[in-house]
Amino acid sequence: MRKLITVTAILIAAISAVYFMACNNNKSEPQVNAREDSIKNVIARGEYLANHVTPCLDCHSKRDFSKFAGPVIPGTEGMGGEVFDQKLIGLPGTVYAKNITPDPETGIGTWTDDEVLRAITQGISKNGDTLFPMMPYVNFNHMAKEDLLSIIAYIRTLKPVKNKVPVRHLMIPISMAYPGPALQKSVDDNMRPPESDPVKYGEYLINAAVCMDCHTPQVKGQFDFSRSFAGGSAFDVGSFKVNSANITPDSATGLGAWNEERFMNKFIQYREEAAYSFDPGTQNTIMPLVSYAGMTDDDLKAIYAYLRTIKPLSNKVEKYPK
Questions:
Q1: Residues 6+ apart with CB under 8 A from 114
Q2: Taking each helix axis from N to C terminus, what angle separates 113-122 and 145-155, rounded to the nearest 10 degrees?
Q3: What torsion do the CA atoms of 220, 226, 230, 231 make, to the nearest 10 degrees?
Q4: Is residue 261 part of a domain?
Q5: 239-265, pLDDT tens digit by residue?
Q6: Which residue range is the domain that position 206 belongs to?
Q7: pTM of this prediction?
Q8: pLDDT at 21
Q9: Which is more confidently placed, 54 or 33?
């Protein structure tokens, strides 16, 4: 893979260019501003994706489940340490979300952009370790390279947090879990579908948001792709238990009777803190609705458009099992 230019190098180049042109050619100022605007746009795109589309900040931060949908606790963004285990989601062992802040000792402060990109698209860390696929690198492996680099650029701006995360403990060899055949060797040719095609763009967003992983039932630890998006996966947070919903367009047990407005309202109501700043007790959800609520209206509509095209599957889900 062609070596990527690090975000740090880009910023240094931009600053150098500003100094050079300011000293030598005042007429070049519009070019400098354009370059600065471009960098800002890249980081802004990454911030949007990491906070509201991909589950980066939800998994790698601390969440407050004393509030509805467990919003991210301010100040913990990217610090890692969240536990994913057999009790929570049936993993064959215990996995901890990594520290992805720029802290050089306990985070990814010494990682190059190439190394971060390899981790999030191939599941291989800086030191060559294989990441457990709880980290959805299979999904990110199919995202547009420009979006992936935007996310990396944004992560570089997070506040460094010194937080040494425990090592994982698996009951199986990692080779048994590594989804090698599902991974492309390179993301260079990946393209983001045009937003003018809401179904294709919605499919792209569904993949980036890793919706299928939570909304598809598993059999003996393997996804049952014959029932994709049919729901029924169980999550035990300790203070509450919840099953994922059937989001296929089945009229009786899924979203078939939902119009676009109802689907939108499922999310946008949580753009206001008052809507989730309460303790729901056992009637809580692990779904990061507060984060997804930050998606643009057009992106939510695209997801709805795509969900209308998938196979309807009858599967009545009891949201809160006894």
A1: 1, 3, 4
A2: 120
A3: 10
A4: yes
A5: 999 999 999 999 999 999 999 999 999
A6: 196-315
A7: 0.89
A8: 46
A9: 54
Count the domains in the chain. Answer: 1
Q: Which of the 8 DSSP states describes residue 180?
A: G
Instruction: Report which of 272, 262, 229 is spatially closest to residue 71, judged by C-alpha positions.
Output: 272
Going by their DSSP bridges, the two strands 234-236 and 222-223 should be labelled as unpaired
Q: Tokens for 283, please give them.
A: 């009637």
- Asked whether residue 110 is assigned to any structural domain, the reply reads no
CB atoms within 10 A of CB 196: 7
CB 216 within 8 A of CB 169: no
Q: Which residue has the tokens 């740090």?
A: 8
On whether residue 227 sits in a domain, the answer given is yes
Q: What is the pLDDT of residue 27?
A: 53
Q: Is residue 252 part of a domain?
A: yes
The token pair that represents 82 in the structure block: 């969240």
Asked if 92 contacts 170 with a C-beta cutoff of 8 angstroms, the reply is yes
Q: What is the CATH number of the domain that holds 263?
A: 1.10.760
Structure tokens at 159: 């506040």
CB 39 within 8 A of CB 10: yes
